[in-house]
Amino acid sequence: MKILIAFVIVYVIYSLQLYLYRKYWKTGLDVDLQFSGDIVLLGEKVELIEVIRNKKPLALPILNVKFATSRSFTFDEEDNANVSDMYYRNDIFSILGNRRIERRLEFSTTQRGVYRIKELQVSTKDLFLKSHFADMMENDTELIVCPQTVLINDYIKVWDRLMGDYEVNRWDNPDPFAFRGIRDYQPYDSMRNINWKATARTGDIMVNQFSPTTESEVRIYLNLKPYSKSLADTLAEFAISIVAGLAKAYTDCGVSISFYSNGFDIDSELENVEENEKISYCPVLDKGCGKGHLRALNILLARLDLSKKTSDMISVLEEGFKTSEGNVTHIIVSTYRDDALYDFYKKHLSKDIVYWIVPERYGNQVDLRYDGMLRMDI
Prior knowledge:
The chain is an alpha+beta fold. Helix content is 26%, strand content 40%. A 6-stranded mixed β-sheet has the order 2-10-9-4-7-6. A 6-stranded mixed β-sheet has the order 18-14-13-20-21-22, with helices on both faces.
């Protein structure tokens, strides 16, 4: 009789807890994945923060949190993970009622791009670890990894040509009464612009900046059409990094920059509900200067999707040259080379300030047939 009563009690307890878990296991359960930063530089350390809130008295003895993210992330802790086409992770927790758990997973970024975690799977078991309950949860987190910046002054011939011509063409008439600030000394700076007081105070050579009599602009054009299948993505990434380097070099000099490309944004396909068609847009960044503008360009570069087919580069160039006003220097960054692009460059070489930077693999032949064509080897 006692055995029967004990069996009934155990059965009642089991049935009651099973009912409670089946009905309420997800009630008051919040699982959130967030990156420690929204926008980071390539190679920078980031944390993926897992936050679990169980806002009910019912404890969850085993809680599995499964999610997938980019395989380009290099996590310091590789336990509970599987890497194939994605980085798949399965973390196990045990959380009491009305408790909060936070776990931080540090990783390094190894590739430019936009990374999102839109959903995750949560599962648990009852107190007797017999029944299994699972469901999908929505998640909203995004990480923008900006491209690596190529230091243009590491490429002496390119640096001397671009900045040397810029000094002659753009800064031969500085306004000595339009003081704009102080910055670090660069090799092309004149000794007469050194601020000796600031140099003595900081220990580094500092120079005065003056606004030019006529404001100048550098307009950068990025052609992402591949010249050959060999190392196509690698050269495209190198070209993107060159653009980032050019933008930083000119921004540091106080020059306004603008940007055009025939590539597309990762979210460029927008549905036109009225006409039931998808419309794509090429990225354009209007003229601007300063750290905020440079940050905006780096975000735009991070969002370029190399998997999308490029648009016609000649049309992009024609639009950029046609709408330019005043003292504008045009810099084309393009590995791709064909007769149409050569002809366009030749036509504008005689009437505009224009350069063509060719990113290429070391050892490959490049036809630098016109003045102002400069190669940069990866």
